[in-house]
């Protein structure tokens, strides 16, 4: 995943390959053979111990990606060639084709062909296909997003050997993203399928929202409040044969890019103490342009923290036993929350600012590291930021103090972490002898596989 992709909404398709016999690949096939394959390869599915494949199409606003995973009957990852997944990407993303839905669907065609090429032809007709969209397409004006989805539906219905249903095209929301990230990281750590107390908690900081997820006890699950409209606190999930009460919440407007806008709103004027001294420009988010510059007195970390707490609504009334921020129930805590893994913008900010060594794909750090680095950043003039922080991306340089203060405040004041607590910050997680990206596509595939039962296999014969 690129830094740019980390903050964008995603569009994905999950293709789950059911075991129907031989895994040999017999070469390229034409779409004219589609219905012949559909009928000739349907056979009794029970009793075969062959491998399973999962293929995820993940298309965000910066580009589309395809992940192909191969699993054994125990849901352990197996190699595809020399890697643990096939990964292919293309640019631009679907939202770039708002005025031309046909071109949007066509941009997925090469990825579809490459995905099908590594899956045995005889397995494809019984492969259910599911497609979903998130904020990336929601930002497209009018009905353009739905038109794009309709054309993509036609692509998979008419030009693919994969099994298709209209209602498998749906919207992936933040709760699902948080669930899939939790499943991915616990899977890679080999804690998925174990007792909830042995699993780890995850916080994923995207661009538009931040998701927290962790497994909770039956006692805490019984105390879960009835969530308000469009809010979810608790999911019942069966993953790798184990039932979990999964606390998951997606905080809209509190992703790394969206939070900047919230902090600008909280300052109520064109100057902001979080902006590096010497910068004078604008910031655009959600179609709104904010004029931003440091006050005459310069950048001020303490005032930035006060403003950030205000943007997070730390002091909002809490109707429950305990809350995170903005009055949101915190899940009750417990063993499933003890070990914490941070991903996406948590990782990129740590890497770019020097908290993590360059080329590190993961690391364990103190929460305080964000605050210590914020002190340095907030004391740096904009004209010196390149020399002091050479790895920060150009479009993020004016906001380096703001971003570091926000992350620290979010973790300590928002999620009530101890500043001296050690957390894992990850892009990749070591799995067996490889490193696998900590992102939602793998978790999505695992969720689909875990929900598959013998009954549904029989129904599809």
Automatic annotation (TrEMBL):
UniProt keywords, alphabetically: ATP-binding, Hydrolase, Nucleotide-binding, Signal
A biological process term (GO) from this entry: nucleoside diphosphate catabolic process
Pfam families linked to this entry: GDA1_CD39
Active-site residues annotated for this sequence: 177 (proton acceptor)
Membrane-spanning intervals of the chain: none
GO molecular function terms listed in the Swiss-Prot or TrEMBL record: ATP binding; nucleoside diphosphate phosphatase activity
GO cellular component: a single term: membrane
Signal peptide feature range: 1-24
Residues noted as binding ATP in the record, renumbered to the chain: 207-211
Protein family according to the UniProt entry: Belongs to the GDA1/CD39 NTPase family.
Protein name, as recorded: Apyrase
Species this chain originates from: Fraxinus pennsylvanica
């Amino acid at each position: 995943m690129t830094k740019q992709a980390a903050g964008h909404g995603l569009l994905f398709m999950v293709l789950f390959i059911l075991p129907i016999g031989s895994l040999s690949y017999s070469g390229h096939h034409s779409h004219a053979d589609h219905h012949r394959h559909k009928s000739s390869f349907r056979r009794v599915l029970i009793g075969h111990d062959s491998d399973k494949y999962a293929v995820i199409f993940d298309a965000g606003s910066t580009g589309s990606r395809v992940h192909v995973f191969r699993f054994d009957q125990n849901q352990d990852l197996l190699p595809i060639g020399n890697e643990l997944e096939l990964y292919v990407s293309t640019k631009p993303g679907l939202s770039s084709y708002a005025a031309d839905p046909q071109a949007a669907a066509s941009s997925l065609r090469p990825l579809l062909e490459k995905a099908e090429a590594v899956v045995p032809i005889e397995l494809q007709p019984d492969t259910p296909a599911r497609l979903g969209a998130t904020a990336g397409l929601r930002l497209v004006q009018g009905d353009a997003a739905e038109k794009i989805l309709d054309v993509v539906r036609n692509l998979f219905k008419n030009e693919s050997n994969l099994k298709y249903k209209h209602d498998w095209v749906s919207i992936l929301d933040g709760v699902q993203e948080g669930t899939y990230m939790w499943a991915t990281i616990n899977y890679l750590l080999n804690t998925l399928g174990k007792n909830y107390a042995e699993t780890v908690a995850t916080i994923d900081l995207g661009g538009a929202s931040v998701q927290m997820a962790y497994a909770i006890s039956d006692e805490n699950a019984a105390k879960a409040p009835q969530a308000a409209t469009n809010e979810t606190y608790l999911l019942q999930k069966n993953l790798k044969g184990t039932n979990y009460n999964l606390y998951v919440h997606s905080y809209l407007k509190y992703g790394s890019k969206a939070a900047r806008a919230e902090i600008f709103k909280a300052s109520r004027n064109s100057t902001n103490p979080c902006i590096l001294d010497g910068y004078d420009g604008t910031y655009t988010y959600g179609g709104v342009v904010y004029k931003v510059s440091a006050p005459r007195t310069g950048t001020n970390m303490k005032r930035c923290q006060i403003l950030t707490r205000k943007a997070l609504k730390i002091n909002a009334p809490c109707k429950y036993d305990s809350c995170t921020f903005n009055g949101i129930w915190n899940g009750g805590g417990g063993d499933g929350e003890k070990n914490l893994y941070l991903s996406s913008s948590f990782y990129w900010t740590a890497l770019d600012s020097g908290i993590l060594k360059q080329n590190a794909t993961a690391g364990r750090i103190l929460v305080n590291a964000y605050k210590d680095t914020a002190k340095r950043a907030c004391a740096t003039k904009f004209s010196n930021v390149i020399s002091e922080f050479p790895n920060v991306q150009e479009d993020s340089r004016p906001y380096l103090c703001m971003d570091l203060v926000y992350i620290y405040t979010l973790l300590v004041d928002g999620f009530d972490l101890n500043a001296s607590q050690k957390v894992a910050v990850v892009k990749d997680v070591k799995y067996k002898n490889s490193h696998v990206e900590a992102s939602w596509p793998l978790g999505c595939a695992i969720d689909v596989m875990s929900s598959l039962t013998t009954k549904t296999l029989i129904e599809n014969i």
